[in-house]
Amino acid sequence: MNGVQPVLECRELSRWYGQVIGINDVNLDLGPGVTGLLGPNGAGKSTLMKLVTGQIKPSRGTVTLFGQTDWDNPDVMRRLGFCPEQDAFYEGLTGLMFVASLARLNGYTVTEARERAERALSRIELLDAAHKKIGGYSKGMRQRVKLAQALVHDPQVLVLDEPLAGMDPIGRRATIRMIRDLGASGCTIIVSSHILHEVEAMTKSILLVHHGRIVAEGDVHEIRELIDEHPHRIFFQTEEPRRLAEALMKWSDVQGVRLDGGGVVVETVRPDAFYSRVPSLVLEESLKIDSMIGADDNLQAVFDYLVR
Amino acid sequence: MGTLPAVFALAARLQIRSRKTFVLALVSALPVAGSMLAASVIRLRFGEGISTGFEQVSVVMGLMYMYLILVVPLFYATALIGDEVEDKTITYLFVRPVPRAIIYLGKYLAGVLAVSLLIFPSAVLSFMILTSVDPAEEIFPHLIVILQDLAVLTLGTLAYSSLFGLMGVALKRPLLWGILFCLGWESFVTYIPGVIHRFTIMHYLQSLLPHPSGQRGILTLFQSVTPAPTCVLTLLLVAAALLALSCWVVSHREYVLEA
Hints:
The complex is a heterodimer.
Chain A: E1 8-17, E2 20-30, E3 33-38, H1 45-52, E4 60-65, E5 68-69, H2 74-77, E6 80-83, H3 95-104, H4 110-123, H5 139-151, E7 157-161, H6 169-184, E8 188-193, H7 196-202, E9 205-210, E10 213-219, H8 221-228, E11 232-238, H9 241-249, E12 254-260, E13 263-268, H10 271-285, E14 289-294, H11 297-307
Parallel strand pairs in A: 3-8, 3-9, 6-7, 7-8
Antiparallel strand pairs in A: 1-2, 1-4, 4-5, 9-10, 11-13, 11-14, 12-13
Chain B: H1 4-16, H2 19-46, H3 53-77, H4 82-86, H5 90-94, H6 100-131, H7 143-170, H8 174-188, H9 201-208, H10 219-222, H11 228-252
């Protein structure tokens, strides 16, 4: 960190759930910018994020934000925004009510909270649906309203747990751009994913987490070549699986396409190029894609290689 | 404390619009339905204008209050935090710059409001229905009784919500423990002779209520009545102490959400 006080510090940070290790002996300094937390499901990413956001306490070691421990610490929480992984909401509230109510907890007046909520919803392009109940939102809209509540108070630290999960390709692209811009403006952002290309689109700085440990950190390009040796699987949820499959089969970097449970599973060896072309395909073919979910089997193979 | 009204507003909105409130509204309406049934039976059997006497009305009212004041706070207060942990929405509250104790306090007050909105109308309606059976009985002199009743119900709501709230934040399966407590300790120990009944909340509520307890027979011979100022003070102290303890538990306890 070049002598500058890091925003986030973890020292010998460990957390166990009974006999199960969540995070083990993590040492970490993070400053402004976007840092990708990459690891397969169950690697310990969410545990690390819960520790950083003061939802759980360390079994051993310390975690501090701005030099302070974060457990039940309003001074830290005021500067923190968190987008959780779980798809949980106050379903009966509208998007605007949800975000404004949470903004009120940051100390804003009713009017300020409403204005901020509208601004946050506009930022994630959900203002049109602001007066609709969250219970009626699509998966992508639910994901975006979670982001809005994390952004509503302009936090200095943003912790995003799988923020792109279930988003449609266009929403995904807009969210990636927004996260990148926030990082460039000086916000400290930790974003978790089990899909390399997602993280790569946001930042070059990554932490690889596996079995509760940080197994590698640094530039994303170093593991990129390893990743590309393994085919990447992507699942599309769509009402028109056959039409989508037909369109995708024409692409040269697609190794295989199959219909699966009302959706399409695609295998590609060049996921980044593949993902970058999906939004154009959706627009050109007027396809309706409800969600796009990348599997982590290629990443798992790389982790297996790294920890061998 | 500046964010307490915001927590209260959010919690009240969520609780009052919940499915639980709908179900408990039906539960709270049972005394009203019971009063209507009782009034109809009396009219059918004895004809219009029969003099029932306020004493009989009072007994029925006393029984209904015991039912309302236990059941409604039990279902609300044991779930103040638990429902949000189960629904995984507690994260949204715990990552805000609000001390956890204030979050609990706001939710507790919203729970008290929700309980009051359900049991007060039920008590007033039941009272009016039962007193209307006897047209010779003037309602006006008894209005002071219903006002006293509402004050006692408020104290009961505060005390039981604190107790069941503590069970909710500190125990697993708090509803089960709460039901056992209601059916066992509060329903049974209240009528044990000696001093042990002084360790129940119900004893102080019954001492305050301007109605006979409704528990006829030899048991009532052994019941003692605690003076009203002592009752009020005890109930307020119990409510405050249990509430403070709940706030402490919420401030220190981890609520790990299941994946």
